[in-house]
Amino acid sequence: MTAPSPQPSPEDGFSILEMIVAMTILALVLGIASQSIVLASRSITAAKRQVEAARTVRVMLADYEARVQTTAPSGWTLKTRTIEMSKAKVTAVLIEKTGAFRGGPFLTFVPVREPGAP
CA of 8: how far to CAs of 5, 12, 17, 19, 61, in Å? Predict the structure, then answer.
């Protein structure tokens, strides 16, 4: 024969209040985790743009120093201005991208080479 099933006690299982608290904590944790993933994705995208911009600036500066006239990638400009200091002449080189680039312009100084110098 089958034994009679024991009567459920108030100690068995979870109460509805415990379930509501557990689900609320789960929802908060999942919300925070999803925001972290979105923020990381945005950071990766911004880093990729900055790396590409730095690569372009290096290429343009190398071309300038080699005195090679190449066409700049779309939207990039290179401006130069010779500055005479007390004992030296330097060229200020400003490379910037028109439009909505957050990185801002790149400014560097290179020594002026005399004509015929390597």
Answer: 9, 7, 18, 18, 80
Convert the pLDDT of each residue in 48-99 to its tens digit: 988 888 888 778 777 776 665 555 667 777 777 888 877 778 888 777 777 7
CA distance 111 to 99: 30
Residue pair 107/98 in contact by the 8 Å Cβ criterion:
no
Nearest to residue 53, comparing CAs of 79, 81, 73? 73
Neighbouring residues of 108: CB distance < 8 A, sequence distance ≥ 6: 61, 92, 93
Q: How far apart are CA 1 and CA 12, in angstroms?
A: 25
Beta strands in the chain (DSSP E): 76-84, 89-97, 106-111
d(CA 66, CA 14): 75
